[in-house]
Write a structure and sequence with these properties.
- The protein has ten helices and ten strands.
- With about 325 residues, it is an alpha/beta fold.
- It has two domains: about 250 residues, Alpha/Beta hydrolase fold, catalytic domain (Rossmann fold, 3-Layer(aba) Sandwich); about 60 residues, no CATH class.
Length: about 325
């Protein structure tokens, strides 16, 4: 099928009834916009560190398809709380239960363990979700942004059973190309981050929830330091991409697209200065080779994070229409 190309036992911690406003799905009714339940679960414990997921669902016993949502932040910062209200509302009004997950963050935790969190979160949703929040384990999609887009693409060949669809906002399938393993020209136009300042933002303890900025030292500064020096792959994995490129193969979606890979929507701005546009183009080409349904949604004026910065852009609204249509076709 040719694609279209377009420009553990859980612990319930919190339960509350909430209502959000935002983008409304076309054709949604007043009933669709009713308040819904948010619950926080621990889906995994490592030592004494609890890794959490927030589940947003409509009240009642109806069994619904699910979306596992994954935050970005270069695998270094961010949290499950980064899901935009407007996007959550859109998915909820379309009939999905949404599960926003945390995962352990680098460099304190290295890439294999981060991927194990992704796999364990997915397994938890499949095995425990039907009883805990009336999810249909055979109707699951994964959506992620930036590094969350990368993890979404990893779910395409690491999550079992395979998701029905993936939605990757400005994600990437290549970890060791010069864009990440060499000093970056865009980041080197910005003030130089000294090594001693960068490393004061990180520590030795496991964390799975961190902001970009902090009152004193910023994990964002650590990320900028990595990009200015081309050390991100080494810091996140503990392996040198120049000396050990083969080690990275199991962690690169671009090298693991097969005929069983799920249908995918790639969304990427052509002027993205953080994750190059061609990252999604290369993934789309691999999908084309394998005959897997996909959509490549682009715009020459979109940058990184376009969906959060250009909410009133007709192109962004159209992109979400494409997403909902794709999910309707492959998940529901």
């Amino acid at each position: 099928m040719r694609a279209g190309i377009r420009f553990i036992l859980p612990v319930i911690l919190i339960s509350c009834l909430v209502s959000r406003s935002g983008l409304i799905a076309q054709g949604s009714s007043t009933e669709d916009q009713q308040p819904y339940v948010c619950e926080t679960f621990v889906y995994k414990t490592v030592g004494d560190h609890k890794i959490r997921a927030d589940v947003y669902r409509k009240p009642g016993e109806e069994i619904r398809p699910g979306i596992i949502w994954i935050h970005g932040g270069a695998l270094i910062f961010g949290s499950r709380k980064g899901l935009a209200n407007e996007q959550l509302t859109l998915y909820m009004n379309a009939g999905y239960t949404v599960i926003a997950i945390d995962y352990r963050l680098a460099p304190e935790t290295k890439l294999p363990e981060i991927i194990s969190d992704l796999e364990d979160a997915y397994t938890w949703v499949v095995s425990k979700g039907p009883d805990l929040f009336n999810i249909d384990p055979e109707r699951l999609a994964v959506i992620g942004h930036s590094a969350g887009g990368y993890l979404t693409l990893m779910a395409g060949f690491r999550a079992k059973p395979s998701p029905k669809a993936l939605i990757a906002f400005y994600g990437y399938g290549d970890l060791i190309g010069p864009w990440y393993s060499a000093p970056d020209s865009f980041y080197n136009l910005q003030p130089k981050i000294e090594k001693d300042i960068a490393y004061k933002a990180i520590g030795d303890s496991i964390i799975s929830y961190a902001s970009y900025r902090s009152p004193k030292y910023s994990r964002g500064q650590f990320y900028h330091y990595c990009r200015q020096n081309g050390t991100w792959p080494l810091e996140v994995s503990g392996h040198d991409p120049h000396r050990e490129p083969a080690w990275f193969k199991p962690y690169e979606p671009l090298q693991n697209v097969s005929s069983t890979y799920p249908p995918t929507v790639f969304l990427h701005g052509e002027i993205d200065t953080d994750v190059p546009f061609w990252q999604s183009v290369k993934m789309a080409k691999e999908m084309e080779k394998q005959g897997i349904p996909y959509e490549l949604v682009t715009d020459p004026e979109w940058g990184h994070g376009f969906d959060g910065r250009n909410r009133d852009d007709p192109g962004v609204k159209k992109a979400f229409e494409i997403i909902l249509s794709f999910l309707e076709q492959h998940v529901k």
